[in-house]
Structure formats: structure tokens, C-alpha cells
Amino acid sequence: MDMREDTELTLTVDRLAFGGKGVARVDGLVVFVDGGLPGATVRAKVTRVKKGFAEARAVETLTPAPQAVAAPCPHFGVCGGCLHQDLDYAAQLFWKRQQVAETLSRLGGLRDVDVAPAVASPETYGYRNKMEFAFAGRLHLGLHERQRPGRVLDIEKCLLMDDRTGDILAFAREACAATGLAAYDPRTGKGVWRHLVVRRSLATGGRLVHLITGPSRRAGDAAHHFGEALLERFPDVSGFVHSVRRAPTTVAIGERQVFALGTDHLEERIGDVRLRISADAFAQTNTTAAEKLYAVVAQAAGTAPDRALWDVYCGCGGIALALAPGFETVYGVEADKRAVADAQKSAKLSERENCVFKTGDAATVLADLAATKPAVVTLDPPRAGADGQTLAAVMDAAPEKLVYVSCNPATLARDLKILSDLYTLTQVTPVDLFPHTAHIEVVAALELRR
């Protein structure tokens, strides 16, 4: 078949690929279908043709998928935040497990892996404790569109967070627009407003709002006036932080904190761990599911009361603090000094006196820690996975157990293939921290071969 862009096809979708697109076939050619659910027949328009595969977008559902449901969000389909509100949650869990198994087999050569059923999130809506909203133009504030990610959709509320967040979002959009200042444009470096990050604590009910602007001279006064008005309008917002970001990359992380009104952090609880979370801190965005994640990690790690544990890429210390009662000493390693400062304060809050947190390049710090001879090493790297030198340092230490927590099955597969020289993969458990999205968190348990 002569397939080109804008060609319309009738396709039957047979499964979901990693990343969330449906998979169909035409004359043996794989077609990845945005908006296609397993079991559905759709009319789709081809958007891209490459050697070996094509991409298409579903424009009409001719026969609905057996597990299709009505999406409750009025922005669904336009907003890029959720892909699968229209798929029954049990089916989402099934396909996430399948995607993990397929990815480990295809990219890691791990074909006989025991992949457990995905652990469900206790809440499927209102579960997020953090949302990142983007500014654009004069003046939009919301989430990026699904089909046109360069555009920002003004959303009234997001069902992944509570209703109060929608109220804060509407107030911020109106207040910032009233200044007459435009959003920051990464192409020109001009403009002010960049991101609005809203956090909430389930433990205290407090909220922290983080405004990130460009380096414009006009940003400081405007941000201060906005912060004061926000705190007056919303008594449950316990803190406001203004940061500046100069880099053009559209990441909701401040490079320099300018000021804070009220408190500059939140306190959260996950099990018996008390976490101090600053404006730019990395912490799991689903508090109740994070407790389940920690439980899976703890089961895989076991205990060694007279031995050490290394927690590599420890962030603000959640996993290290959760596992600390089972080990003599826990060493947390993290490159971000702000995260380490939070981890140290969290250790005091949690009364964990056996935790030591170190800042620096992971491979370098692990070399310095070699004499501690860990019984267990946990790793929770960013999406890019662990770097080769860090994996080499871990393998040199040869702990009896490794527990690898990953938010990207593709890089997990790559790293497990490297670790397989010394370790046997004993269990893989997906944990769903992100219902209705394509994101998957995975815990892999490994044991040293004797």
C-alpha cells in the first residue's frame, strides 16, 4: 500500500505500546495510533511515515474498545496531561505490566523475567501532590496541548489534583495577566512568566506555590505583589517562592531563588517518614502510591542490621529514610545539594540517626564509600538511567542485593543488561504512580550470583 501523510485508514488496534499509543498493522506495517485503544476499530489519519513503521491519529471511533470508558475531564483529548482517562483502570494496569515485560525483552534481552501485576494507585483522580503549569503569550496559564505541545491550554481545573488547585490557577492567570507583562519566550529570551508550580501536603494540608520567571528586571516587583495577594486570598497556601530561570529549556526548575513569603517548604509523611520538601525538590508526586512503592522496595531490600546500605540518586531521602531501621548505616548519595539539605533535615524530623547524606558525583562518592561494603544498594536514577561509571562502582562493591527503581523501562532494560554480568534479576514490579498517563514506575530486584 502507498501510505503517505494525511492518508486515511481504517485500523483495528490490538495492543498498547510503551508510550501510550495503540498498535495496529496494515499489510504487515506497524502503525502507532494516537488515541487508539486495544480492541477498537478507528478511522485514523497518517501523520508520519518512516521506514518500518508509521504514525497516525485516531479521528473517529468506529467500534469502541471493550474496556473503553467515558473520560470525566472536559479537557481530555486536547490537554496533553492524560492519555488514558478513556480506558478502564484495570486495563491500564494490565497494559503497563505488558509494556514493562515487552521493553525488558526487546531492549534488555530479558525474556524470562517474572513481571508481577502492576500495583494500583490507591487514588486514580486527585492523586497528585504537585502540578507544573506553564505560561504562554499574553496570557495563557495551564498545560501543554496533546497534539500541539508548543501551545498552552487554559484549563479550569485538573482532575489529577484537587479542586483548590484550579482556584489557585484561575487567580494566578488573572493576576499575572493584569500586570500587562507577557510570558517568557525561550526563542527571544524576552518576557517574564515561565511556570507556576503548586504543591500540597496530605499530612498538613499546607500548600507551597512556586513562581518561576525569566530574568527580566520587571519580574521581581510583579512577583512580590502577586505572592502577597496570593497568600492573602488563600489562607491554606503556607508559602510562596519566587525563582528565576535563565536557561531557555522549558523545565519547571528555578536556577536561583529570589525570595520566599511565608514558609519555603512543605512537610509530608510517607508511612513513618517525615519529608521536608523544598520548592525545587524531587519527591514522588503521588503520596499514597509512594507508600506502596516504598513497601515494594523494602521487601526487595530486606534487612541487614549490622551492615550498610547505599541509596544512590537519593533525592530528598525518602527511600533511604524508609529503609534505615533495617540497617546499621544508610548512605544517601545525590548530586543536588539542595536535595541533600532536605534529606538531612528530613532525617532529623524522622529521627533517623543512622543516615549519612553526601553530595557529589555518584561514581566519585561511591569510590570513597567502598570501605563500607554495603549489603544492599538501591538506585533511583532520573529518566536517563544510571551512568556507566556509577554502575561500575556499584558492581565493584558487589552488594548481595540491588534494588533498582526506574521511571523509564527503556533505560532500566539497558542498565539491567549491564548488571546481568554479576546479578540475577529475581523480580520486577510495576507500581502505578501515574494513573491515566503513559508513565510507569518499576522496581527491579537483583541478587548477586554466587
Automatic annotation (TrEMBL):
<keyword id="KW-0949">S-adenosyl-L-methionine</keyword>
<protein>
    <submittedName>
        <fullName>RNA methyltransferase, TrmA family</fullName>
    </submittedName>
</protein>
<dbReference type="Pfam" id="PF05958">
    <property type="entry name" value="tRNA_U5-meth_tr"/>
</dbReference>
<dbReference type="InterPro" id="IPR030391">
    <property type="entry name" value="MeTrfase_TrmA_CS"/>
</dbReference>
<dbReference type="InterPro" id="IPR012340">
    <property type="entry name" value="NA-bd_OB-fold"/>
</dbReference>
<dbReference type="InterPro" id="IPR002792">
    <property type="entry name" value="TRAM_dom"/>
</dbReference>
<dbReference type="GO" id="GO:0008173">
    <property type="term" value="F:RNA methyltransferase activity"/>
</dbReference>
<dbReference type="InterPro" id="IPR010280">
    <property type="entry name" value="U5_MeTrfase_fam"/>
</dbReference>
<dbReference type="GO" id="GO:0006396">
    <property type="term" value="P:RNA processing"/>
</dbReference>
<keyword id="KW-0808">Transferase</keyword>
<feature type="binding site">
    <location>
        <position position="284"/>
    </location>
    <ligand>
        <name>S-adenosyl-L-methionine</name>
    </ligand>
</feature>
<feature type="binding site">
    <location>
        <position position="334"/>
    </location>
    <ligand>
        <name>S-adenosyl-L-methionine</name>
    </ligand>
</feature>
<dbReference type="GO" id="GO:0008757">
    <property type="term" value="F:S-adenosylmethionine-dependent methyltransferase activity"/>
</dbReference>
<dbReference type="InterPro" id="IPR029063">
    <property type="entry name" value="SAM-dependent_MTases_sf"/>
</dbReference>
<keyword id="KW-0489">Methyltransferase</keyword>
<dbReference type="InterPro" id="IPR030390">
    <property type="entry name" value="MeTrfase_TrmA_AS"/>
</dbReference>
<dbReference type="GO" id="GO:0032259">
    <property type="term" value="P:methylation"/>
</dbReference>
<feature type="binding site">
    <location>
        <position position="313"/>
    </location>
    <ligand>
        <name>S-adenosyl-L-methionine</name>
    </ligand>
</feature>
<feature type="active site">
    <location>
        <position position="407"/>
    </location>
</feature>
<dbReference type="GO" id="GO:0009451">
    <property type="term" value="P:RNA modification"/>
</dbReference>
<feature type="active site" description="Nucleophile">
    <location>
        <position position="407"/>
    </location>
</feature>
<dbReference type="Pfam" id="PF01938">
    <property type="entry name" value="TRAM"/>
</dbReference>
<feature type="domain" description="TRAM">
    <location>
        <begin position="2"/>
        <end position="60"/>
    </location>
</feature>
<feature type="binding site">
    <location>
        <position position="380"/>
    </location>
    <ligand>
        <name>S-adenosyl-L-methionine</name>
    </ligand>
</feature>
<comment type="similarity">
    <text>Belongs to the class I-like SAM-binding methyltransferase superfamily. RNA M5U methyltransferase family.</text>
</comment>
